[in-house]
Amino acid sequence: MNKIVFATNNANKLREAAEILAPLGIEVISQREAGADCEPEENGVTFAENAMIKAKAVFDIVKIPVFADDSGLCVDALDGRPGVYSARYAPKGQECAKLLDEMKDIPDDKRNASFQCVIAYVDENSSFTVNGACLGKIGYEEKGENGFGYDPVFVCGEKTMAEMTAEEKNAVSHRGAALTALYKMLAKG
Ligand code: IMP
User: Fold this and answer.
1) What are phi and psi of 16, to 5 degrees?
2) Residue nearest to atom 15 of ligand 1 (CA)
3) Contact at 8 Å (CB) between 182 and 130?
4) Of the residues 6, 74, 104, 125, which has the maximum number of CB atoms within 10 A of its CB?
5) Residue 121 and residue 56: Cα distance in Å, rounded?
6) What is the three-state SS of the chain?
7) pTM over 0.85
8) Catalytic center residues
9) What pLDDT shows up at residue 153?
């Protein structure tokens, strides 16, 4: 394999994937670069289903190895919500405020949460999924200017994800962990 398609057009995700997979000597290209202009409906009920829907849809067009990711925030006190619905939980930019409001009466010891990421891989002979998780807690206020989505309220160690640099976040993130798991699978051959 000398090329693999990441079923995304997100430049940050592409850079991170290219860095982690670099030792394999495989070029990571975006969905757009591969000529797959599709946006399949993510109607699965798990991260794995949604990641597989995306990877298969792009593989059907490009016919070379593809991987796709799906991710979200799972809050223990909310029985795992927003989960696969993380992107649709609130209008963009209002997700943290809504979550803080839902969590306003939840005590410190019940504020555990995790970012989850599943990567699905598909080629002509095989398909599989790998997972990555980042454990943390939901804070009491938004802190930090970096990142996106729920980063300002997700506390991991001493900082929120939005207070971390991109390098610090990639070192602990759910997506970094899933990409490392993908690297290990591909390295096995
Ligand atoms: P996607 O899988 O990248 O489309 O992410 C789905 C949704 O999960 C995003 O819209 C965010 O709301 C949330 N999410 C996933 N990863 C992160 C992260 O690293 N930081 C903050 N929010 C995230």
Assistant:
1) -60, -45
2) 72
3) yes
4) 6
5) 8
6) CCEEEECCCCHHHHHHHHHHHHHHCCEEEECCCCCCCCCCCCCCCCHHHHHHHHHHHHHHHHCCCEEEEEEEEEEHHHCCCEHHHHHHCCCCCCHHHHHHHHCCCCCHHHCEEEEEEEEEEECCCCEEEEEEEEEEEECCCCCCCCCCCCHHHEEECCEEHHHCCHHHHHHHCHHHHHHHHHHHHHHHC
7) yes
8) 70
9) 98
Which ligand 1 atom is at minimum distance from the Cα of 95?
12
Q: For the residues 12-38, what does the mean pLDDT come to?
A: 93
Rg for the chain, CA atoms, rounded: 17
* Ligand 1 lined by 71 (C-beta under 6 Å): yes
As a whole number of angstroms, the distance between CA 53 and CA 55 comes to: 6
Measured between alpha carbons, how far is 97 from 17 in angstroms, rounded to an integer? 30
65 within ligand 1 shell (Cβ under 6 A): no
176 contacts: CB under 8 Å, gap ≥ 6: 16, 20, 132, 170
The pLDDT score that the predictor gives to residue 149 is 95
In this structure, the residue with its CA closest to atom 8 of ligand 1 is: 72
- Domains parsed from the chain with CATH numbers: 3-188 (3.90.950.10)
Q: Tell me, using a 6 A CB cutoff, whether residue 149 lines ligand 1.
A: yes
C-alpha 56/C-alpha 31 separation (Å) is: 12
